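Hi R.,

Here's the chain you asked about this morning:
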Amino acid sequence: MLRVLILAGVVAAAASNSPTRSSPSAALLRVVAHEYAFEVTPPAHAGVVTVRLVNHGRETHHLEITLVPDTMSLRTVYAIASGTQTSLLVHDMGGPNLTTPTDSNQVTLRLQPGHYVLSCWVIAADGKPHIMHGMMAEFRVTKGPSELPTPIPAVRISASDYKFVVAGQLRRGPNVVAFDNGGPQEHDIQFVRLNDGQSASAVADWARHGGVGTPTQAVAGGSSGIDKGNHVWFTLTLHPGRYAMFCFVPDAKDGKMHLLHGMLREITVQ
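And here is the predicted structure, written out as tokens:
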């Protein structure tokens, strides 16, 4: 479900931001991010889809893909996102997480035929999530699923309230990661490389001070929020050094990022 935040206003701005469609590419959902809009090239088929976020903006962005009822408008989705209650009508599927300007990230996930809404929840300098600046779009998938296989992971990371369980060893170089959510709440996963002299506590300080942008300059990869029972795959390329792994979805009870409830770990890569 869409992450729970107490927001206000600018419904009209969000509802008016419609996607730009180009010729679809099979098994690829390509999204270009700007301030504060998305350009969307939808996939040709449902099924196993690679989602690629390309950041042409000046700020960090991420991408949340949400399955919504076929007749639900962007205005209604925004109203749900702006409220204090979750909705059983919307389902977060994941997407590329924090992506810095001029960079790109991608994840692989399963999409069923249906109606999807894209949103960005990165906090801007004014303290508001980008969705409040109108950063939403939509697309539909109508064709049947493709038969492409899912990636074969070397590492599997399972999230629950409030911990990560890592099966396998994260190593230098590319790591194919499967990310699962055991629930009950929505969870995401983000890796950042820590600067010299920093510890994972720097990420906690970032969260306590509003979570604007990114906690460090070096963003390594991850997936945006997925509901209980969902799965995504992504490739994480790591260099020797220390990294922080965390979930920054706001908690359903107190609104604090899950990393402040213990979903923050420091990892050393040799």
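One quick note: Residues 12 and 81 are 14 Å apart (CA to CA).

Cheers,
M.
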